[in-house]
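User:
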Amino acid sequence: MRVALHTRVRADRIAAYEQAHREVPEELTAAIRAAGATGWTIWRSGADLFHLLEVEDYPRLLTELGELPVNTAWQARMAELLEVVHDYSADGASAPLPVVWQL
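Assistant: Predicted structure:
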């Protein structure tokens, strides 16, 4: 399945956000893959971030990552950089952008 998300980085933290994503911990990327993701791309337009995840089961991914220390640390780091932190927990599974049109 494909899941689209929208988040917003703080305008004064864009450089730090991009730097953080040049240093995503290998342990975290391995955990994301192990939880069923085959791809995750983030685009930025100004402060708006658009994510596209390719994942077997998005709610399962959220559950599996939820309490992992490497993910908890990453989410804390992102909380410092994002205006509104997306709920990457099982409760947040209903937050993806709805599909409007697809070719």
